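Model it.
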Amino acid sequence: MRFPTEAILLSLFLSLCEQITEATISNTCGRLVAISVPRQNNNHEWMKGPVEVHMWDLNNHTDWKIQLSLYSSISRQLKVGCGYLVTFVQCRRNVSATDRSIAKSGMQNRRKSTSNTYFADEAVVQVIDKHGSTLQTFQIPGKFSGVSVVNREPTLRSISEGLLVYNLQEGVVKAQNVKSNKVVGTFTVNNAEITTVNIASNGKSAVVGCGNGNVHIIQMI
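Modeled.
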């Protein structure tokens, strides 16, 4: 018995009527995933809503939903493979600043802040299994544009060690390892501004689109 495709389309249609969504499909075309947030009258208010992931597994005839976070989100991205789903959410959230640690002369001192809260930018990357359970969560301080999964084996350890977040700013792409927080390289194109990027699974090359309409395959420098 085949999975009722009409039910999937109806469910996705209802979600699209009520929510703003982003979707992707696995490389084997066995899983369809949509990420969504509630719609609001204000065009910018949707970024403050909860992030929900809905996955349809066509092979096992199942589907599930989970909520990722309640943080104010700037951007979202999905990567889905045979065994795991990787989600990326760029957040800006309020953080209590009554006590902040500062470094001074190699020593950690504490001092009171005059403000109660401040805004902190961070990327939240999660690895989710095919049943909807969150296996790992990484929170990386800073502003990033997306995530790439650089791995050769579809194991949890290989995926988590091969996660790269990248920052696209002023036409230059900087890639950073999620677990080590080390910058592993940069991508750039002479005399052109990179506007979109897709890092290859080997982590050493990327397909980039530029503001002048050209598409390039480039190597990491």
